[in-house]
Amino acid sequence: MYGITFGVRSLSLYLQSILKSRGVRFEFDVQIKHIKTLENGRIQSLVDQKGISWVAKHYCFCTGAYHGGLFQTLFEEKDISAPSMIAGMRGYWVVLEPKNGDTISVENIILGMGGKPNKVHGKKSLAESLNLVSSEARAHALNVFERCGVDLTKLHSICPTMDFNIMPIYAPDGPKIGVGSGYTFVGIGKCEDGQIMFKEDFNACIFTQELMKLWLFALYGEKNIQKTKISAPEKSCTRSWTWDDHDVFPSLKTEADGFVTFAGGGNTGSTTKCHVEALRALEIIQGGVSQGQTKTYKMDQKMTPDEWEQLQRPLQFQKIKF
After folding, report:
1. Which residues contact 77 (CB under 8 A, 6 or more apart)?
2. Of the candidates 192, 194, 210, 191, which has an alpha carbon nearest to the alpha carbon of residue 94?
3. What is the spatial distance between Cα 74 and Cα 57, in angstroms, rounded to a whole number?
4. What is the DSSP string of 288-318?
């Protein structure tokens, strides 16, 4: 399949240099703990972890699922449902390494990958995923799923969407394969009926990593994978998303008659959609909207072919063997 690969760190440093040349100032290690409002509901200032107030005409929040409840009271006062719409998907990792110094098994898997990153993005019920592997692997996975709290009578109706990259890593101590990050909704936000799949991050981690192993078995053969040392790091990352696949832009007014925008969701990576979110924030700030109005956008509705061409130009496209 076709995919996009680029160095996020290199891209970020490049964009940072451009922004600095245009007068942008970066302030790191600042945590906003409180939003001060006036009696009329307008935003007066932001207060950080040191009690310092930050005042501006316009504010653009791109915290997504990392808002940590900061906006909850603010949104409730304005009768805006954004906090329940902006949810979080937690991503986990699996690493394949040579076992007992034998690099051949890992090298063979990388060879089967065409030496390039592979992408897995699809949706199967747990029953379908279990049918991809041997009876031994199936029995092990069922045991893991049951310990995680999965109702084994609903294997046909539980359909996780898997989204992870399989990356060859040429490390000094030998080749490795990084597999991540498989995403599971872990209750940072709530779905429409108020249900969450996992209340505990620990269970979500084990469940997701076991499901990734099933797909790896199916893709590259159980014998090949079992000849490697499989480790499952506890580290994770979180991506923002929304139930209706929209970016969310509720807007409020500031004391200086400016606007406050909140970006989040959209069901795609922040690097991919930052261009679109920046355009939307500028549209609100420059064009203005009524106080308390909520505007939502779908990427495919607002991005023109010319905009997409401008977005993809600095990225490197390559054909990925899958």
Report:
1. 37, 41
2. 210
3. 18
4. ---TT-EEEE-HHHH--HHHHHHHHTTSEEE
